[in-house]
Amino acid sequence: MEHPLYSVAQVRDIEASAYAVLPPGALMRRAGQAAAGYALELLGARRDLPVLLLAGPGNNGGDALEMAANLADAGIDATVLHLPGSSDASSETAAAYDRARSGTVGWIDMLPPDAQWGLVVDGLFGIGLSRPLEGPYRELVEGLDAIRCPILALDLPSGLDADTGAVVGPDGIAVRATHTISFLGAKAGLYTGDGRDYAGRVRVDLLGLGPGHFPPAGARLGDVDVFGGRLAARRHNSHKGSFGDVAVVGGAHGMAGAAVLAARGALYAGAGRIFVAALDSAPGYDSSQPEIMFRHAEDFDFGGRTLVIGPGMGGSAGAMRLLAKALDSDSPLVIDADALNLIGASPDLQSRLARRAAPAVLTPHPLEGARLLGMTAAVVQADRLEAAREMALRSDATVILKGSGSIIARPDGQVLVNPTGNPGLATGGSGDVLAGICGALLAQGWPGWEAAAGAAWIHGAAADLLVDDGVGPIGMTAGELPAAARQVLNQLVRDRAGP
User: For the chain, what is the total number of helices (H) and then of strands (E)?
Assistant: First the structure.
């Protein structure tokens, strides 16, 4: 199922297309009706409790006013706190204000202390906000921290950038919603960066518009359909060679654990044979997973194998030589960790990467991405989608920019925002496991785009499965992820195969 993500500019175009064929105010009335219906669902059996609606000066405030009138008509005790602003409202918002004023909606000028609400609705600012919340708006949002009830944001939480998922402003503030109803399509900022912390559970409502109003989207929410065509039950008549070899190149002195975690990720994601090509003296075997074979990297033949290069690799001259050798090979590559830092510091390695014909997937976290792009991690995080696109373009490779709402990008500019995962992944070694999973999928013949999308989705879903089973997110370890990823992957295959 397609889950397109639209930019602010595209949403403006969708609005213009709708305005051209709908009566004046119809779109705002539909938004008010959709939001009121969702509010009634959220209230459930608590419909005797009042609802507070925060209405700002623009059309987002108009949506809140329409919603207030609809809730009042449904018998809900609806109260509006209206901050009209200094400029004239649009005709649609003015009409919504008049409608709300003519009914039974209550009005207040400030947050009352100790009031109990069944629901608070954020209709302060929508997608057009470009400045940090200040003055009475900031004070009002700060006051919401003391309110203990669900908070429903209209379109997106006020103070959040719809395109980037960043809170607007270096010292900005945003409404921390428990639920968001996103009108006319989903916005990428709801799913990445700060978005998942502030948007809560997201519902999308197209407000009754048909497909002709919606342009092609340059981004979409990742889901199983992106890589589902690669999921297949294994034939009985197969052997370990049927599922490819993965070699993890890394594990310098004191960092062997990173390479072992990547190897375990590849093992549990189904690769046929797993090697660790260690830069320093390799252990004889992994006592937990003796299936993993250890070799010395300098003597290891890269040919015919998928390489996961970088976990625990370090920055030595030997590491640089091995990376150059891998980049010049025709092996599929997953480039992670220290290998990314070496590439970021070397124009020669960057050139070798861009010239490759075989698939390559880069898996940077924001700081590694910043080194690749020659900027700071803060700049990368301020616009994660564009940073991932730029890395993919420069490297001519697929990129997984890790973090909340990992971004998967390819050189043609298409991006996915991965929806799975939780804070339990913020632990040492989880990225190594991701690299190993991705390597296993490449080794089994998945193209780079599907392998990256599938690895990110499965890795996040494994963490979600662990939390559902009572493991984490606090204290979840990377070593627990491979077995959970195996469970997720096999369930996906069973679901795809059907009864």
Answer: 17, 19
Instruction: Give the residue extent of every domain in the chain.
Output: 4-218, 224-497
The answer, yes or no, to whether the previous bond of 473 is cis (omega within 30 of 0) is yes
C-alpha to C-alpha distance for 51 and 64, rounded to whole angstroms: 11
Q: Are 395 and 432 in contact (CB under 8 A)?
A: no
Q: Please give the structure tokens belonging to residue 78.
A: 């609806």
- Quick one: what percent of the chain has pLDDT higher than 90? 93
Closest CA to 79 of 139, 135, 133, 119: 119
Asked if residues 321 and 302 have their Cβ atoms less than 8 Å apart, the reply is no
Q: How high does pLDDT run on average in the chain?
A: 96
Could you check whether 4-218 and 224-497 share the same CATH topology?
Answer: no
Please tell me the CATH code under which domain 4-218 is placed.
3.40.50.10260
205: Cβ contacts below 8 Å, ≥ 6 apart = 31, 34, 38, 181, 182, 183
Q: What is the Cα–Cα distance from 302 to 315, expressed in whole angstroms?
A: 20
**Does position 499 have pLDDT exceeding 70, yes or no?**
no
> What single DSSP character describes residue 288?
S
Q: From residue 78, how far is each of 46, 58, 65, 179 by CA, in Å?
A: 13, 20, 10, 18
Task: Please write the tens of the pLDDT for every residue from 105-150.
Answer: 999 999 988 889 999 999 999 998 889 999 999 999 999 989 999 9
Which distant-in-sequence residues (6+ apart) come within 8 Å of 439 by Cβ?
246, 248, 262, 265, 266, 271, 306, 307, 308, 332, 334
Asked: is 224-497 a CATH 3.90.226.10 domain? The reply is no
Contact 113, 137 (CB under 8 A): no
Cα–Cα distance, 374 to 215 (Å, whole number):
33
pTM of the predicted model as reported, rounded to 2 decimal places: 0.95
Report the chain's terminal Cα–Cα distance, integer Å. 21
CA pair distance 307, 443, nearest whole angstrom: 9
